[in-house]
Specification:
alpha/beta, 40% helix
């Protein structure tokens, strides 16, 4: 009887030990990737992070929206596993990253010009007017130049309150790049920047797309710019903006897809769309920044797994969240490069 009990104990002990070994192995294989940066794609990246766990149980991804400048800064310092930016890193930025850099285009989208003007539901802003508002030259809603764009609309005699970003922002980069492309005055006065020196007084500043959206929503007479998905989420009115063909176009997924349809991706995937030739004119791309060298083979493998998922299954969620997808041919190039160069 004692021999039987002793034997049973040995079997149980061996089983527990084997289970513990297997669990420790699974834990060792689990990887957490930390990302930070642009708020423009934050809703998409956070959805990616939730969805990827359904097929990759051992992959945990955390993404914090802190602005594109913050994303580039953290990536350069090496405090994250990947960064996010709507303003692709310059050569001078990439040169500071000793571990190497690959820019991965993940999505595109429209930047909405949002406004809070009770009683005005279909505001139109021409290519001449929009840059002058954000250059501080047009300061009243009933300015003759705005009235000319909006015949028959009762525009109030009140000051325009611009709402801009408080942080260094890729959304700001996309917006000011467009305004600089269509207006020599804006280019000379303000220029293209993630954090420009605005020329007007009395502007309100919000952190992230969410901060700007919230401020516009509670500022009567306010006007600002946010990713189209934030405009929809916050039920904000978006102006119809004039494109190169003279058409006044409202932001939408379809109009953004049209605006980005002619984009050609070079070898480094770095593209700046100043003024799309058709569709909605204020559009841009967003990138994940990953290293070529990681501290361990396990971390490098996790990054490869993450990027492959984003470039394949993940793209199915882009349209659902009002972002454009990356062309299939470009996705294949990205996956091949990441598999080849990330170590």
């Amino acid at each position: 009887m004692n021999l039987k009990v002793t034997g049973l104990n040995r079997i149980v002990t061996s089983s527990v030990a084997a289970a513990a070994f297997l669990l420790s192995g699974a834990a060792a294989q689990a990887q957490t990737l930390v990302g930070a940066g642009a708020s423009f794609p934050a809703p998409l990246y956070q959805r990616y992070a939730r969805e990827v766990r359904k097929t990759h149980k051992n992959l945990q991804v955390n993404y914090t929206a802190c602005g594109s400048s913050c994303g580039i800064r953290n990536f350069t310092k090496g405090t994250v596993d990947f960064g996010g930016s709507d303003a692709a890193m310059k050569d001078s930025d990439i040169a500071k990253v000793s571990r190497g850099t690959i820019l991965v285009p993940t999505a595109g989208g429209a930047v909405s010009v949002v406004y809070n003007l009770p009683g005005v539901n279909n505001l139109k802003l021409s290519r001449k007017v929009l840059p002058l508002i954000f250059a501080g030259r047009i300061t009243k809603w009933n300015d003759a130049r705005i009235r000319k764009d909006n015949p028959g609309v009762r525009l109030p005699n009140r000051r325009i309150t611009p709402v801009v970003r408080a942080d260094g922002s890729g959304t700001t980069f996309i917006f000011t790049n467009h305004l600089s492309t269509i207006s020599g005055y804006f280019k000379g006065r303000i220029g293209t920047s993630k954090k420009p020196r605005w020329a007007f007084r009395g502007a309100r500043k919000g952190k992230g797309n969410s901060g700007v959206a919230a401020l516009v929503k509670r500022t009567s007479g306010g006007i600002g710019y946010v990713n189209y998905s934030y405009a929809r989420l916050n039920k904000l009115k978006s102006a119809r903006v004039q494109n190169r063909r003279g058409q006044f176009v409202a932001p939408s997924l379809r109009a953004a897809n049209t605006g980005l349809s002619s984009v050609k991706f070079p070898a480094n995937y770095r593209v700046f769309v100043g003024d799309s030739s058709q569709g909605y004119p204020i559009v841009g791309l967003t990138w994940m920044m990953i290293y070529k060298k990681y501290p361990s083979a396990a971390k490098a493998a996790a990054v490869k797994k993450w990027i492959k998922w984003v470039m394949t299954t993940g793209q199915n969620f882009n349209g659902k969240l009002l972002y454009t997808s990356i062309p299939t041919s470009v996705r294949r190039r990205v996956i091949n490069q990441v598999n080849r160069e990330v170590k």
